[in-house]
Amino acid sequence: MNIITRALRSRLFVTGEIVAAEQVAPRMRRLRIAGQAVAGLAWTPGQHVRVLVDAPLTLRTYSVWQHDPTWECIDLVGYDHGADAPGATWVRTARPGQEVAFTKPEGKLTVRQGAPYHLFAGEETAAVAFGAMLRAVPADAAVFGAVEAEEGGDHLDLPRDLVRVCRSGAPAAGSETLVKAVAALDLPDAPGVAYLAGEARTIQAVRAHLVGERGWPRRDVITKPFWTPGRKGLD
Ligand SMILES: Cc1cc2nc3c(=O)[nH]c(=O)nc-3n(C[C@H](O)[C@H](O)[C@H](O)COP(=O)(O)OP(=O)(O)OC[C@H]3O[C@@H](n4cnc5c(N)ncnc54)[C@H](O)[C@@H]3O)c2cc1C
Predict the structure, then answer these.
(1) pLDDT value at position 71?
(2) Which site among 24, 118, 130, 133 is 20 to 30 Å from 76 CA-CA?
(3) Ligand 1 centroid to 203 CA: how many Å?
(4) Handedness of CA 88, 94, 156, 168 (dihedral sign)
């Protein structure tokens, strides 16, 4: 890398090194990235970074599972959706010792403090942001939600109890499994705040249920599409 490229890269990206990689579920890998620059990052739970997964400028987005300034590290958890795509390949093959460049944390999928209660719905990719957000929800605040995964073992351990459902071979895109799971939740009569993330069509269907069938105002349904079939690096 020449001097100009290196200077440009250091302006745009934070650089760290992978210090640990752990298979936390059959299709999910936790990657710990450490370095001096990582310690100083400002991060609100739910925010994401964009990782330079391939040269020259292939970026893919991953939520920060956890940021630990003391240990100068962040943890990402990547879902290996099985395709030969840059993000999934990076998740699958990243190893300790490897340098990683990524953008500073950003994003508006964060906990709305003071909400009457919090409702979470999404699949494997969304579970990462949800884990961080659930740690930021006050302990006495009510939490509801449903998380979908391919199989039971693919669920991440989350800090609060959400209903777990499995697709078991059904498509994650436009998932009826997740919509049904949300429809079956026994929620208070009045709306709270909903956080819907993951596959775009599924999110739309869950939002349509909350707004159309449960009468939630749109402003109380926060959505963030993470991916959808046929689109690359959705963000
Ligand atoms: C704000 C935000 C936060 C995100 N956080 C996370 C996270 O913490 N962990 C995580 O794993 N992902 C996360 N994602 C999703 C991730 O960025 C996408 O899945 C991304 O497309 C993966 O890149 P890729 O190179 O593997 O596939 P791409 O090249 O982007 O896409 C190629 C094709 O692969 C398929 N595809 C992509 N993603 C999936 C998927 N998840 N399941 C099934 N098929 C898929 C689609 O058909 C797509 O057209 C996040 C996305 C956003 C926008």
Answers:
(1) 84
(2) 118
(3) 14
(4) positive
| pLDDT value for 56 | 82
Domain 3-102 has CATH 3.30.70.100: no
Rounded to the nearest angstrom, the distance between the alpha carbon of 9 and the centre of ligand 1 is: 23
Atom of ligand 1 nearest to the CA of 65: 8
- For a mutational test of ligand 1's pocket, the pick from 226, 228, 232, i.e. the residue with the most ligand atoms closer than 8 A to its C-beta, is 226
224 touches ligand 1 (CB under 6 Å): yes
Residue 1: per-residue pLDDT? 65
How confident is the model at residue 12, as a pLDDT?
Answer: 87
Instruction: Give CA torsion, residues 207, 213, 215, 221, to 10 deg.
Output: -10
Q: What ranges do the domains of the chain cover?
A: 3-102, 118-227
Domain 118-227 has CATH 3.40.50.150: no
Which of 227, 228, 232 to mutate for ligand 1's pocket (most ligand atoms within 8 Å of CB)?
A: 227
Phi, psi of 108 (to 5 degrees): -110, 5
- Block means of pLDDT (10 residues each) for the chain, length 235 residues? 72 94 97 94 97 93 94 95 96 97 97 97 98 97 98 96 97 96 98 98 98 98 97 87
Strands, sheet with 193-199, edge to edge from the N-terminal-most edge strand? 163-166, 143-149, 118-122, 193-199, 221-227
